Amino acid sequence: MDDLREPALQGALHVLFVRSPLAHATITEVDADEAKSAPGVHGVFTADDVDLPPYASGGSLSGPTPPGLDRPHLAKGVVHYVGEPVVAVVAETLAQAQDAAEMVSIDYDPLDPVIDLDEALAGEKLVFPEAGTNVIGEAGELDDSLFDGCEVVVTEQIVNQRVAAASLEGRSAACAWEGDKVTLWLSNQNAQSCRDELMGNLGLPQDKLRVITPDVGGGFGAKIGSEQEAALLSMVSRKIGKPVKWVETRSENLVAMTHGRAQRHQITIGGSRDGRVQAYRLEIVQDVGAYPRMGAFLPAFTRMMASGVYDIPKVESRAQTVVTNTTPIGAYRGAGRPEATAAIERAIDLFAAEIGADPADVRRANLVKPEQFPYQTPGGMLYDTGEYIKGLDSVLEAADYASLREQQAKRRADGATKQLGIGLSSYVEITAPNNTEGETGHVEIRPDGSVLVLTGSSPHGQGHWTSYAMLVSEQLGIDLDKIEVVHGDTDLIPKGVGTMGSRSLQLGGTAVHRAAIDVKDKARKLAAEMIESDEADIELTDGKWQVRGAPNVTVSWADLAQKSADGLAADVHFVEDRPTFPFGSHLAVVEVDVETGKVEHLRHVTVDDAGTIINPVLTEGQRHGGIAQGAAQALLEEVSYDSDGNPQNASFADYAIVTAAELPSFELLTMETATTLNPLGVKGIGEAGTIGATPAVQNAVVDALSHLGVRHIDMPTTPQRVWEAINQA
């Protein structure tokens, strides 16, 4: 937002937040008098100055959330995590705001923090005493007889660690009032949903609130929905009478933006010694952080996708969500579905190791077969289409799996310092889980023959402009450079949902596609009238309308737009009958130094089948980014806290973001199994790589050391953690 050149933001003041340095404490005094009189300062705001209702609790897995968990705009009375905003300083320059923030004196009386999950479950210390519990939601029942009849039963506790979204652009916002209407510019994934949330918080009708999401530098789920900072900026701007803006620092981002994952799993898998899995149980404890936001619902996605790609007769899951004195948890690329895949894929490898079978053979024996689709899972999902066995076999063949196993055996026989690990994962994910909300598309021919496309999808690096323009160009024969795609402006596009859950192309793209077809149908009728010919004889050739076989008389798109009395345009709101289910298989090859614990990622071979491919370059880009993030979680990334709730990763100096130097060149195989649920045959691709990559890499690291007696290593598989596992084994 710092580089926005909007006229309404000329002379905008800078907002800076003073955030809590303690995880849990009573605020005994806030002294801001010196800061208020500092040079350039236009206002200093505390909780007592906020006249907005708190943000309602993010909900629960089961029934109403316990009382007292609503999220304040500025902490009042008690702080609940390091990074919670306590004071807002407004000044003419950022430097002046920083100087004034140093003058704010806040006295805290420390309280015992709740950090550990077992501590949270025990409830001896409470994050919110008025709630009477740290457990804010439970779902699912367990059956003691689930594993009756199984020859082999294996169980393990695993951790799907807390990670930071760490988007290229952190959170930011700008705000300007014009009379009684406010415009907010937000670095966000869904303008319309933000507007709707802010309407309630600010008490404004829809026509008095405009939200614009300009070029947004990444989101990964952590920018879904509005933040308390956005509403607070609106209030501050209104009270001061000037536009304001806020851009968080990277350190601020790492402690204050929502984190992802943060689940602990108890996995139990049972079956026969010939490799058939008969029963699977997944028990989840979800850390939601200090306030229940989207993290409170992530276990619902994990539970619904628990059985993955496997035809397992008996599957059950149970989840508990707990609050802790840590940064709140939100969505992060995959949002609950990667957690499910990581759990079942570790379970399959543990089961294979227990019966002495090759993990590829165990997978193949239990994968849902093509003739079983549409496939109803024990978790209640109806998978649309899939070729799971074909995907696995394609990856094994491309990687020369048999040769890799031979190389591994030789290194083991030679006692090599660097051992080879081969990891597999087969996955299915749900895309457009909020399909019933649909998405909007508008296509309009302008008088000069160019095209305006309006979409409710709001890109933040995915390339929607290109894909949607391609869909329109294919239908209308108009060059891409004459097609303008506009998004993220609630005045221009009042109805929309946004971009998350890999929903955009199958919902937003289909809406644009259908709108283009509707425009073409209208144009055909109008062209027939202008040419004075039968509509059935009119055809579109090279972007011009003519009578079939008689190219001497043509009508251009500009002619039609100028002739049309009510405009040559169409609006479509497309709703899919149910979600789609992309799938794939990943194979990772790693080298592990048994003397130092260092892991090197050597190869990564994947099938990521997301139905029909519209743009191969964009698809490949999404796969590359997803695989990199998935591998990073397996190898490097973790947000951690000490026992006092102090974050240990407040900068990129100690939060390990993956770079190209740590990754191999990905070997991407192509498969297209079209869905029948939309006319394009497309499924989502944005999160697929992340879901498949993480367990493949983790399984590879464990596999490299399995001959030494290593059974499991939690993520991230850092050199220290690997070295400790070797020595313990």
UniProtKB/TrEMBL annotation:
<keyword id="KW-0500">Molybdenum</keyword>
<dbReference type="InterPro" id="IPR008274">
    <property type="entry name" value="AldOxase/xan_DH_MoCoBD1"/>
</dbReference>
<dbReference type="InterPro" id="IPR046867">
    <property type="entry name" value="AldOxase/xan_DH_MoCoBD2"/>
</dbReference>
<dbReference type="Pfam" id="PF01315">
    <property type="entry name" value="Ald_Xan_dh_C"/>
</dbReference>
<protein>
    <submittedName>
        <fullName>Carbon-monoxide dehydrogenase large subunit</fullName>
    </submittedName>
</protein>
<feature type="domain" description="Aldehyde oxidase/xanthine dehydrogenase a/b hammerhead">
    <location>
        <begin position="1"/>
        <end position="112"/>
    </location>
</feature>
<dbReference type="InterPro" id="IPR037165">
    <property type="entry name" value="AldOxase/xan_DH_Mopterin-bd_sf"/>
</dbReference>
<dbReference type="GO" id="GO:0005506">
    <property type="term" value="F:iron ion binding"/>
</dbReference>
<dbReference type="InterPro" id="IPR016208">
    <property type="entry name" value="Ald_Oxase/xanthine_DH-like"/>
</dbReference>
<dbReference type="InterPro" id="IPR000674">
    <property type="entry name" value="Ald_Oxase/Xan_DH_a/b"/>
</dbReference>
<keyword id="KW-0560">Oxidoreductase</keyword>
<dbReference type="Pfam" id="PF20256">
    <property type="entry name" value="MoCoBD_2"/>
</dbReference>
<dbReference type="GO" id="GO:0016491">
    <property type="term" value="F:oxidoreductase activity"/>
</dbReference>
<dbReference type="Pfam" id="PF02738">
    <property type="entry name" value="MoCoBD_1"/>
</dbReference>
<dbReference type="InterPro" id="IPR036856">
    <property type="entry name" value="Ald_Oxase/Xan_DH_a/b_sf"/>
</dbReference>
